[in-house]
Amino acid sequence: MKLHHSTVIIVLQLSIFQTILGNHWSLQSISNYFGRNDKKRSPAVKKGEEKSALHQLTGSEGPLTLTRVVDHLNSLAPLHLKEPWDNVGLLVEPPTSRTIKTIFLTNDLTMPVLQEAINVSADMIISYHPPIFKGLKRVTCNSWKEKIIGLCVENSIAVYSPHTCWDVMSGGTADWLASAFHPAKIEPIITPRPPAPEDKNIRFLVEVHGARNLKSNAHMKTLLGSGSSKIISTNPKEKRFSLTITSQELPFMLNKISKTFSGSISQIKLADSIRDADLGVGRFVTLEKPTQIKDLIAKVKHHLNVSQLQLALSFDHSLDHYIKKIALVPGSGASVLLEACGDAELFLTGEMSHHELLDANHQNVTVILAHHSNTERGFLRVMAQKLRSTFSTWPGTSIVVSDSDKDPLFVI
C-alpha cells in the first residue's frame, strides 16, 4: 500500500500497531494522515512497483552487505530483548566494507576458533557469547580478547553477538534446549510485562531506507529537532537510518521524516515491548506423562550429544523417580531457576555453584548440569539452517558452523 505523501511506503505489523494505539490509528488512518491536504495524489501502485518497493528490504538485488545481514539478525532477534547487563549486536565493523560471502557461527570466539574462521575466509563471525563484554580501554596484544579484536579488524572480519536475545526469542536457544523433552508443553519461566494500550510512552522502532540529505547523527538531530526520539543507527553511505519514537509522537515524526529525507520507511515495529507469549527467560516444561529421571538423563545426553552429565539428586529422589515438571535455562541459570521455578521437580542448566545446588536439593529439586556452553552450542546448527534459507537468494553465500568451538571443561 502506498501512502500519498512523497515516496513513503510503510510496511508494518498492523495487528501490533492497532493493539498498541487502539482503533484510532489504523493503517487507513495513517494513510489518511499522510494524504490529507495533498491535492496531487500519486496514482495507484502497480503490482510490479509494489513488489519492487518491498524488494528493497527483502530481495537479492545487489550484493549481500554487512548492513543487510545485521538488519536480518536484528529483526530475527531484536536487540531490545537482551538482558540489561548484556552487550549484543554488531561489535566489530571493519573499516573497509565488502560483500558478505561466508558467515561463520561459533559459541565462543577463542583464538583457535578465529584461526578456523580466517582459514575459511569468513567475512563475518556470529559469536553467541560477546567477545567484547566489558568496556575495552585499549586494543593491544597483551590479552587474548584484545588480540582477537585486533585480528578481526586486520582481516576485515565483522563480529556480531546475539547472546541473550537468542535465549529470549521464540524458537531460540531456550526452546532448542527444551526440545530435548518433546512431546511436552513449553512456556517461558519469566515473560516480559506488556505495556498498557493507553501508554503514550510505548516506543516504536522506525527503519528508513533511501534517505536523502543524511550526513551524520548530529545532522539528523538538527533536522528532526528535539523530542523523545532516539537515533539507533545511521549509515549515510547506504542512505539508511533507524530511530525509536514514542506512540504519542509517531504520526508527527513520520510526517517529518518523509518531508525531510524523502526516504522509504521500510518497517515500524515495537521497540521496547514484547507481546509474543512465547518470548521470555528460561523455559518451564510439562511432560505429557511422568518420566523417570534416568530416562530424562538419556534424553538430554542424546540431545546435547554428550556422553556424561553432572547430577545432583534431591534428597527424596532416586534415578527411578518419576518427574513431570522441568525448569531449564541455557548457560548459567541458577538465579532464574531458584527464584522463579514454580513447582519444578528437575532443573536443567549448564552450571550452578555448590551452594546453589544445595539450595535446589533442599527444595526437593534434582539438578542436571551439562557444562555452560553445551546447553547452548547445539542451537548454532539450527540457526545456520535458518540463515542458509534466508540468504539462499545470494548465490555463493556460505554459512559455516565452527568445528573447533568447544566447552573448556570435560570429564576425564
Give a verbal description of the structure.
The protein has 14 helices and 15 strands. With 412 residues, the chain is of the alpha/beta class. The protein folds into 3 domains: 14-59 and 195-270, no CATH class; 66-168 and 378-400, Udp-n-acetylmuramoylalanyl-d-glutamate--2,6- Diaminopimelate Ligase, Chain: A, domain 1 (3-Layer(aba) Sandwich); 173-193 and 277-369, Udp-n-acetylmuramoylalanyl-d-glutamate--2,6- Diaminopimelate Ligase, Chain: A, domain 1. The longest helix has 12 residues, at 47-58. The protein starts with 13 loop residues before the first helix and ends in an 11-residue tail after the last strand. Residues 1-60 have low confidence and may be disordered. Keywords: Metal-binding, Signal. Residues 1-22 form the signal peptide.
Which homologous superfamily in CATH is the superfamily of the largest domain?
Answer: NIF3 (NGG1p interacting factor 3)-like
Biggest sheet features: 6 strands, mixed
The chain-level structural class is alpha/beta
* CATH topology grouping of the largest domain: Udp-n-acetylmuramoylalanyl-d-glutamate--2,6- Diaminopimelate Ligase, Chain: A, domain 1
Strand order in the largest sheet: 5-10-12-13-14-11
How many domains, in number, for the residues?
A: 3
Percent helix: 25-40%
CATH architecture of the largest domain: 3-Layer(aba) Sandwich
Shape: globular
Count of DSSP strands: 15
Question: Class of the largest domain, according to the CATH hierarchy?
Answer: Alpha Beta
**Which runs of at least 5 residues are low in confidence (pLDDT < 50)?**
1-60
Given the structure, what is the number of helices? 14
Beta fraction: 15-25%
Rg calc: 24 Å
Order of helices and strands: HHHHEEHEHEHHEEHEEHEEHEEHEHEHE
Mean pLDDT: 81
Distance between the termini: 63 Å
